[in-house]
Amino acid sequence: MTINSIKFYLLLGINLLMLGTLSLNAWIAYNDALHELDEIYDAELARSAKLISLLLTSRTLSDNIGQPVVVAVPHITDMGESLTVQQERLLDGHKYEGKIAFQAQQGDKLVMLSENALQFPTPIREAGYHEITEHGSLWITFSYFVPNHNLWVFTAQREDIREELGAHIARAQVRPILFMMLPLSLLIYVVIKLVLRPLQLLQQQVANKTPEQLHEIKLALPDELQPVQEAINSLLLRIRSYLEQEKRFISDASHELRTPLSILQLHAQNLSSATDPVEITEAADAIVEGSKRMSHLVNQLLSIARLDHLEAVSFNQVALTPLLHQCLAQLPPLLLDKVSWQLQLDDNCQLHGDNALLQSVMRNLLDNAAKYSPADGTVEVHTGFTDQQTIRICISNSGTVDTETSRLGDRFYRHQQHQQQDGAGLGLSIVKHIVVLHHGSISFAVNNRNGLDVVLQLPAVSDV
Length: 464
Fold this sequence. Notes:
The protein has ten helices and 13 strands. The chain has helices at 6-57, 85-89, 159-195, 197-207, 226-273, 277-308, 320-330, 333-338, 355-371, 427-437, and strands at 69-71, 100-106, 109-114, 128-134, 137-146, 151-158, 316-319, 340-344, 350-353, 378-385, 390-397, 441-446, 452-459.
C-alpha cells in the first residue's frame, strides 16, 4: 500500500478520527469523574465536620480537663498498587487515614484533633472551603462554626488523594484506547480493503483493455462506482468509434489515392514510350491534371486530419457579405461564368467564428452549387437573421438532384452519376465538421427547381 493511495488516506483518516473521538470522550469522562470526586470528597469533609461538631456539643465541653482529645492515626506504609482492595481492608486501617485530618476549637482552645493535625498552621476561621499548605502538601479544608457553643470544626484532606484517584481514572480511560487501537485498525484495514475491492476489479478491467478489445465493462459495482463504469464505457465506445472511423478513412484514402497514382503511372509510361509530339503533349497534360487532382485530394485529407484534432475554434467577428464576395472571387472563372448568380445578402449579418474556416465552408458550398448545376443554371444565395442569435444562409441551385441527401457529408461519398466531376467526396464532410465546431447546423433538401438547398444556421455576434 503506497502513501499516495485512497486506501492509505482512508485508513489514516479513520484511525485519526477514531483516536481523536475516543481521546476526546476519555478526556471529557476524566474531567467529569474528577468533578464528581471533588464533590464527593467536599461533601465528606462537610459531613465529617458536622458529625464532629454534633459529637462535641452533645457532651459538656467543660468536662474536659484542659487538654484536647487527640485521635490516633495509624502509620501504614504505602505499598503502592500491589495490594487488592480486600488485602488493604485486612489491615488495621487504611493508608489514606494519614491524609485525612481534623481539628475542633472552642474559642482559642483546642478541644479535639487528629494526630496528624498537631503541626497544622492556624486554620482559617471563615466558613466554607479553603486550601492550605503544610510541610509541602496541599490540603483542602472545610471550616464549620457552631455559634451557640462558640465552636469551630476544621476538617482537611490532602489533595494528592484526589490526584491519585484521578490518575486511576485517567489510566482506566486510556487503557481501553491503547488496547483497542491495534485490533480496530486491523479491522478497519480489512473493511477498507473489502470496500475498495470493486474499484480494484474495475482498475484491472481497464488495465487489460487493448485497442482490439474495447468492449464494454460489465461488473456488479456499488452505486457510487456505477457512474464511473458508465463513463468508462462511454469513453471506450467513443474510442472504438474513432478507431473504426480512422480505419475507414485510411482505407478510403488509400482507395482514392490508388486511382490517380495508377493514372499517373500509366501516363508516365505512355510519355516515356511516345514519339509523336501530339501523344507526348497529351500524356504530359494528363500527368499535370492528375497531379492537380491528387494534390487537391491530399490537401483535403490534410484538412480532414487537422479538423479531427481541432478541439476549439478561435471565435472572432466576421462580416458575412464581404466573406461571400471574397469566396466568389476565389472560384475558377469557368464556374463563375457557368451559372447565373443571384445574391440577396443582409449586410448587417456578423458571424461569430473563425474567418479561415468559415471561408473554407462558403467556398466549398459555392463551388459545389455551381459545379452540380446545369450550364446557364441559377445559384441563389440568401442571408438573414433567424433570430437575434442565429444567422441563416441558404445556397440553392437548379438542376436534377439524383443523390441521397441523407448521405451528403459522408466522407468519400459521391453519387455514381457524378464520378466524372472533379473531387473526392470530402468537401461536404469538411463543411459539416467546421459547422459543428462553430456550434451551428447544416441541412440539405430538394427545392422546387429540382435543385439542392443547403441551409446553414450559424451563431451571430450577439451570441458572444
